[in-house]
Amino acid sequence: MTTHTTHTTHTTHTTHTTNSTDKTDTAATTRTADVPKSPDAAGTAKAAEAADTADTADTADTAKGLRTAGTTPATVAPRSTVAVLGPGGTGGLLAALLSRSGHRVICLAGEATADTLRDSGIRVRSRRFGAFTAAVEADTELREPVDACLIAVKHTSLDAALTRVPPTALGDALVVPLLNGVEHPAALRARYRGDRVAPAVIRVESARVAPGVIEHGSDFVEVDLTGATAPGPRLDALASVLTAAGVTTRVLGDEAAALWAKMAFLAPFALLTTRYALPLGEARTRHREELESLVAETAAVSRACGAPADPAQALARYDAFPPTAKSSMQRDAEAGRPLELDAIGGALLRAADRHGVPVPVTARLVRELRDAGLPASGHSFD
Ligand SMILES: NC(=O)c1ccc[n+]([C@@H]2O[C@H](COP(=O)([O-])OP(=O)(O)OC[C@H]3O[C@@H](n4cnc5c(N)ncnc54)[C@H](OP(=O)(O)O)[C@@H]3O)[C@@H](O)[C@H]2O)c1
Fold first, then answer.
1. CATH of domain 257-371
2. Cβ distance 180 to 266 under 8 Å?
3. Distance from the alpha carbon of residue 271 to the mean position of ligand 1, in angstroms
4. Domain chopping of the chain, boundaries
5. pLDDT (tens digit, 9 = 90+) per residue, 96-139?
6. CB of residue 10 inside a 6 A radius of ligand 1
7. Which of 184, 242, 281, 327 to pair with 150, CA 20 to 30 A apart?
C-alpha cells in the first residue's frame, strides 16, 4: 500500500498520459474564493443542460465545517493508489484525471470493460480538459489495499458491483461513494469499516458512451467529500489529490446536509421530467403546481432528516435552467436503461414515512413511474 508522506504544499505529479490539452496545475492552487459555483448558482444558465450537476451548489454554504483543498495544511499523498469501482461517466472521468495527475488507478469492472481499459486506457473528450487518453490498471476484483476506493456505479448495479470489493482487500482505504441518493452510505458502512466510509456528492455532466470512452459535457467537475465518521486528515489528503487532478473538491462536515441538498434538488426535477417525458421548460410550466408540491414535500422531508432546505430557491433554480434541460433519470428512461427511481423517489418516500411527513404528490409520481414498467432493476453484467 502506498505510504503517505506529509507535505504542506501540493506536489507536482508526473503525468503518464497522452494528448492532454489541459493545464491541471491551475487547479492545484484553488482557494476558497476561487471555488467555482455550479452554473446555476453563479447565475449563468450556460452549462445548465447538465441538469443534475448543479444541484448542491448551496450545500457548502450551509453545511458546517467547509474546507476546500488548498486552504488547510492537508497531508498530501505524492502518489496515491485509488480504486474506481464502475469506470463510467463519473468514475471513468475521475479515474482518467487521477491517472494523468500521476496516481496509480485500478479500475474495477466486468471482464470485457476491464480488458478494454487495460488495452486502450480511458479516452476522455472534455469541454474542460480537452481530449486525452489515460492509462489505468483494470481488474474484475480488488486484490490489494488502496488509499481510496471510489464507488461510481449506479444504484441499480450497486449490490452486484460491491462483490468486486471484498472488505478484506480494502485495507483501511477510504470508501467514497459518488452515487446520488441518501441510503447507500448506511449499506456501505454495514459492509465496510464505518469509519472509512466518506460519502461524496459530485456535480458534473459526464457520460460513458462506450466502455472506456467518456464524454465530459460540463465545463466543471466538483466533488464535495463528507465524513461524519472518516478521519479529517484522510479526507483532506484525498481532497488535495482530487483538486490537483482538476476536480474542485471540498470537504464538508455535514453529511446529511450535503446528500439531502442534492436530493432536494434532484428528486422533484427527475420525477417530474421523467413522469411526463418532458424537458424542464415544458414540465415546469405545464405541471407547475405539481413541481411546487414536489419541491415543498422534498424540502419538508429534508428538514425532517436534519438538513436545511429552501423551496423558493429550488424553484428559482429550476426556472433559471434552459427549457431544454433534461434530468439524467429522464435520459435513462429514454435510453431504456434502469432508473435510479428507488434510490431517489423510493428513498424519499421511506424517509417521509419514517418521519411522518405527508408527501402525496411525490408518492403518486413514484407510483406512476413504477407502474409505467420502466426498467427499475439492475441490468445484468457479465
Ligand atoms: N454521469 C453524471 O453526469 C452524474 C452526475 C452526478 C451524479 N451522478 C451519479 O453518479 C452515479 C454513477 O453514475 P454514472 O453516470 O457515472 O453511471 P454510468 O455512466 O452508467 O457508469 C456506471 C459504470 O458502472 C459499471 N458497472 C455496472 N455494473 C457493474 C458491476 N456489477 N461491476 C462493476 N462495474 C459495473 C459500468 O460498466 P460498463 O462500462 O462496463 O457498462 C459503468 O462503467 C449515479 O448514482 C449517478 O446518479 C452521475
1. 1.10.1040.10
2. yes
3. 20
4. 25-30+69-253, 257-371
5. 999 999 999 999 999 999 999 999 999 999 999 999 999 999 99
6. no
7. 327
